[in-house]
Amino acid sequence: MVETQDETARRLLRIMLNGLGLDPGQADSVTFSGRGTLRGYYAYTDVLAASLAAAGLAVADLLEAAGLGRPRVQVDRLLASGWANHTVQAVNRSQKRESPFRIGGEYPTADGRWLRITDANLRLQQRMLAVLGGPRTVEAVAAEVRCHNADELEAQLLQGGGAASASRTMAEWAAHPAGQAIAAEPLVALETLGASTNGWRPTPGRPLAGIRVLDCTRAVAGPMATRLLGGFGAEVLRIDPPGYEEWDDRDPTQLTLGKRCARMDLASDAGRRKFLDLLSESDIFVHGFRPGVFDSLGLGADERERVCPDLIEIVHNAYGWTGPWTQRRGFDSTVYTSSGLLVESMTRAGVMDPKAPGVTQHVVVDHGVGQMEAASAIRGLTRRLLSGRGSRSRLSLAGNTRLLGLTVAPNVPVFETPSPEQFEERIYNGTRGPLRRLRSPIDIDGNPLFWERPGELYGSSAPTWAGLRI
Q1: What are the angstrom distances between the C-alpha of 253 and each of 88, 223, 224, 259, 336?
Q2: CB distance 401 to 339 below 8 Å
Q3: Tens-digit pLDDT profile for residues 351-398
Q4: pLDDT in tens, 419-458
Q5: Where are the beta strands (DSSP E) in 199-311?
Q6: How many CB atoms neighbour CB 108 within 10 A?
Q7: Distance between CA 32 and CA 24 in Å, rounded?
Q8: What DSSP assignment string belongs to 419-453?
Q9: DSSP H or E run through 392
Q10: Which residues of 344-362 are buried (b: 16+ CB within 10 A; e: fewer)?
């Protein structure tokens, strides 16, 4: 018997709640509305809706633990779909600009497979072009990739500091040592840290007011997590290295909404000292660096816990924390390809083209992980409130793909783009002109999701906390 969308969303939500240490039975208390799904061959929309519901239930649990009652949580399925791709609507054409040269995509290889190349920023692209011999057109990249076997070129690009993944079937991934290690990992791995003397308590109506979030995230998953925390009232300070920029063909401030953005060189003595000063006054630290990166900077876990014993640390990587690929650089698109989801999508579609409509909705992995990271951070606040101790939660992009693999696309209308009434009437200033924002897909009674600050460009602010310590 085929599941309804509500049944799929609740089944996924129970798995997520179990991973967060919440009662899976709470899934029945959430109201899901809207009928429709993102185009594709998995229940993408239900993964997004369920992960947003998990964050909402984490907020409800925090408020209840503080004796402030338990609000009802509702999630709009269509708005959850829209958040994955269409969060802003230009009021005029001033936001249009010429897109930078990009080589990201799936390319056929000499052995009849596909190689996914991801260039999230200029530095990453340059590393891979150096390995490929410097072709300056997508056609030239495709011709070069066709000369190699997938595994061989994948290894060369990774060794050169790039991000690539060879396609595998789901059976091949299940038999791979990395796939087996990730399958054995919990969705959220929890570690208890030091004792706290922090007297913070949530505020009704603005549950995370007074919380400071230090954000060292990149790409999409981590920024989505910290953006959600900012929407619940936390102060978020994002730190990027000098000269770092990310490519976004839409409004770039969608990754920085509600945050202040500063630059800091953590490889310098002054940068490390300043970072530790900020960390010592933080409640939550979110990052997505591979294991060993902070250790190489003298900012390893022991040092972080020394300056902030009750820190709530949230971290994700691409390929898990126990297997042979823990150090491997990756993004949602590379994980989607290596874990078998790409090949399985093409098989279900009956096509041999990864660019066919609905085959590559890999961005859902990023958003799902980001929303689970936000839920994990809020769960950390509840644990600190009740037990007086900090915590570290580890997640992975590859771990989240397991949820998608448990689903099939529902037989419901396909969601294409949000309707005009799904955007707020209010007009905001954007870096490319005026815009409207998509309404929030999550409704927690009496605790609206909103941002006091517009998104800002990288490096626009000083590396200091703006709000007073509550």
Answers
A1: 10, 11, 12, 9, 25
A2: yes
A3: 999 988 888 887 899 999 999 999 999 999 999 999 999 999 999 999
A4: 889 999 888 887 777 888 999 999 999 999 999 888 888 8
A5: 212-216, 235-240, 259-263, 284-287
A6: 17
A7: 16
A8: -GGGB-SS-EEETTEEEEEBPPSEEETT-----SS
A9: strand 389-396
A10: bbbeebeeeebeeebbbbb
Q: Tell me: pLDDT of 116 over 80.
A: yes
List the strands of the sheet with 31-33, edge to edge: 31-33, 73-76, 442-444
Give the C-alpha distances (Å, rounded to integers) separating 362 from 2, 47, 107, 383, 400: 24, 12, 16, 32, 11
Q: Are 227 and 255 in contact (CB under 8 A)?
A: yes
What pLDDT was estimated at residue 96?
A: 54
Encoded amino acid at 171, one letter = A
What Å distances lie between residue 47 and 13, 32, 75, 197, 288, CA to CA?
8, 12, 12, 37, 21
Phi-psi region of 143 (alpha: psi -120 to 50; beta: other; left: phi over 0): alpha
Q: What is the DSSP letter of 206?
A: B
Amino acid letter for position 357: P
178: tokens are: 């990395």
Rounded to two decimals, the pTM is: 0.95
**Angle between the N-to-C axes of helices 5-20 and 363-387, in degrees from 0 to 180, rounded to the nearest 10:** 50
Report pLDDT for 253.
74
Place of tokens 């491997």: 328
Tell the residue number behind the tokens 């929303």, with chain if given: 371
